[in-house]
Amino acid sequence: ALWLYELSNAMAWSFLLLAVWLAMHASVASHTFGVKLLTRFVRLPLPTKEELDAARAHVEDFESAGVNTWLRLPGMTTEYGAKDQHAVANIATREVARPDIASHLQLFRKLQAR
Description:
mainly alpha, 114 residues
């Protein structure tokens, strides 16, 4: 009967060690996937040089706008706000060199809306 007691204890310790080993493996695997998720799948792609050039304002645009636009109070009119919203919509929907940017922007907007 003593060998049955020793066998039971040995198996209990074996299962304890197995459980600890599997728990550590699961912890490392979940941390690895969390890092991969944050660095590869969720991060928005960086804009290319062409996209940045298309989004910037030029001095000619400001000079050709006229005196009324020069002297307006910022934020009091939606003249540029509507233009900016239209530009953002174009960036999200147009075909670019990296087609995944549109889906990333739509996913980002959906997440921000929550």
